[in-house]
Design brief:
- The protein has 1 helix and 8 strands.
- The protein is globular, with a radius of gyration of 17 Å.
- It is 11% helix and 62% strand.
- The chain is mainly β.
- It has one domain.
- The termini are far apart.
Amino acid sequence: MKQKMFIALMLLGTVTQAQDYYRSLSYEQVSYDFANEEYGFRESKLEDTRFITHREYLALETSPGSFIKISSAYSHNDRKLGDCYIMSSDKDMYCLDSEDNKVWIFLDFQEEEELFKSAVVLTDIEKIEPFKITWK
């Protein structure tokens, strides 16, 4: 009986604390083109960025070994972009696009136009082993 209870507690802890560790090898910056009414490519860069997704936050590596933690809450599932989360500012959102292996980070929501002004798209993503973080 004790063994079954221990296993149940371990599984519960895994579910409630689930977080995934990833590495992006490049990113793209896009901005909304009001004339064409679509997001247009601005620049791309090869950059190794580690990040962590969790049901309550997104952690991004800003420099080697230094991470920022951004609180978030589940918003909806977009059929093109995957699961989307509103970030703590309420003007930013990120979406986990598992079909195209990208993370879209939308920035600066414009209420009048009902769209985000720009986005950073993490690309070439691979899942990696968990690592220890010192929050700064």
